[in-house]
Specification:
Rossmann fold, D-amino Acid Aminotransferase, Chain A, domain 1, five-stranded parallel beta sheet, 16 helices, 36% helix
């Protein structure tokens, strides 16, 4: 096994990777930008290298700096986490050329599957269902009009590269096409460096379902119980659960088998996630492949008992998978709430500021993936997600109640967060009955929550404020 691994990331995911590496006896190297000098991942790693810069483009996204830090410290492998360079084929190739191991898929697999139009072609070859749309990227308005008329409205224009909802536009009628195409192309160019977009049929009231896979270098492939990721704002997930109440055993097997076929066809190895849309009739359609570890991977770990980071490390080192598909089954239920620094009452606008006080909820079946501490500063330079709360129960009902308890027990002040929204979701009838879709925010969230839901959060805020005031009082020596 590797003796030393550099983690090309920051925050909670860097800490999460460090935790598994420590358990496996692997030394870790952290990298950090100037604002992250006091961050927990820097303190927890065995070594830390300052790569300078303030913004990601000056630090975590600079391939040469990351490679140099790994070579300087004698790291044998680099784990990219998620975000930043995790799905960058050039970076994966650079790691290989520097005689180190990239803990993830090959650069060729990242390149092929990172492009949504190429991924659709691979899906077709593997016999995986896709939604009707263009065979490749579209550039001319006339071409877009023709395809939209053939497949019918509403349609989606989507960036061929990247994700996170950027470069995506919903078109509901023909007169919106011209402006929508220009807007999607412009955002795609700004966000991903190219303006290629494609068009596909918009699935009305879908569920966003994803399948976690592991594939080793010997041809063995495993798929895990699905994750339900339909609670989103701006096409980005906020609350996830596993398994999904909308997925039957038959759908689960078919979706898992489809994911395995696509992985085999593409020659993909290591951990990855295939995302699908599920309609009300039970039909599912392939969307894309995330060629990395997902933010929501902890809920899969909770219900399967498998440490996915450990499996990534073992696969990257060359070990075959020891688990069989028959070993993989959902036991109980898990829910993840993303704690983001956002004002949920102002269209989820990102917040900046300093965490005055934090005390994370504790208890059986409660997991915190967090890099928070008193004095932690949230800036505009990084993603708004600052922590994740993961709760496990023997049943879905138990997991929901445990998550509500944990949200009420969260002590965090100095910033507005998504905690009120997460509590609203878990307490809503739509979520409790499992009758929701990706349109949950538009249908149920109206910028305020009932007083009975707000009260526990107000109490938590008051307690946190009291802690701060007590801490600020001078100590009188007698």
């Amino acid at each position: 096994m590797f003796s030393k691994v550099l983690i090309a990331n920051r925050g909670e995911i860097a800490l999460r990777i460090i935790r598994t590496c420590k358990r496996m006896g692997i030394r870790t190297v952290a990298i950090y930008s100037e604002p992250d000098a006091a961050s927990l991942h820097v303190k927890e790693a065995d070594e830390a290298i300052n790569i300078g810069g303030v913004t990601p483009r000056e630090s975590y996204l600079v391939i040469d700096k990351v490679i140099a830090a790994a070579l300087e410290t004698g790291a044998e492998a680099i784990h990219p986490g998620y975000g930043f360079l995790s799905e960058n084929a050039v970076f994966a190739e650079a790691v290989k050329n520097a005689n180190m191991v990239f803990i993830g898929p090959s650069s060729s697999a990242i390149y092929a599957l990172g492009d949504k139009t190429a991924a659709r072609e691979i899906a077709i070859k593997a016999g995986v269902p896709i939604s009707p749309g263009s065979d490749g990227a579209v550039t001319e308005l006339s071409e877009v009009v023709k395809i939209a008329n053939e497949i019918g409205y509403p349609v989606l224009l989507k960036a061929a590269s990247g994700g996170g909802g950027k470069g995506m536009r919903l078109i509901e009628k023909p007169e919106e096409l011209e402006a929508g195409l220009k807007s999607a192309q412009g955002e795609a160019l700004t966000s991903f460096g190219n303006d290629r977009v494609f068009i596909e049929k918009f699935i009305v009231n879908p569920r966003h379902i994803e399948i976690q896979i592991l594939a080793d270098n010997q041809g063995n492939i495993l798929y895990f119980p699905e994750r339900e990721c339909s609670i989103q704002r701006r096409h980005q997930k906020v609350v996830e659960e596993s398994p999904s109440v909308a997925v039957t055993d038959d759908i689960r097997k078919k979706m898992g088998a489809a994911a395995a076929r696509l992985v085999a066809t593409s020659g993909y190895t290591n951990a990855g996630t295939l995302e699908f849309l599920l309609d009300a009739s039970g039909k599912f359609y392939f969307m894309e492949v995330n060629t990395r570890l997902q933010v929501e991977h902890p809920i899969t770990e909770m219900v399967s008992g498998v440490d996915l980071v450990e499996q990534q490390l073992r696969i990257a080192f060359g070990f075959p998978l020891e688990l069989q598909q028959s070993d993989i089954a959902a036991k109980g239920h898990a829910i993840e709430c993303r704690i983001c620094a956002e004002d949920v009452y102002s269209e989820f606008l990102p917040e900046t500021g300093v965490v005055d006080y934090v005390r994370l909820p504790q208890g059986e079946g409660i997991r915190n993936d967090s890099a928070l501490y008193a004095g932690y500063e949230v800036t505009v330079n990084y993603d708004s997600m600052i922590a994740k709360l993961i709760c496990y129960g023997n049943s879905r009902e138990e997991a929901i109640e445990k998550a509500i308890f944990a949200l009420d027990d969260y002590r965090l002040s100095g910033l507005r967060t998504t905690i009120p929204f997460c509590r609203f979701v878990l307490s809503s009838e739509a979520f409790r009955t499992g009758k929701y879709s990706t349109h949950f925010v538009a249908e149920y969230w109206n910028d305020r929550i009932p007083d009975d839901l707000l009260a526990p959060l107000a109490v938590a805020a008051a307690i946190a404020k009291q802690h701060i005031e007590l801490r600020r009082q001078p100590v009188i020596m007698k």
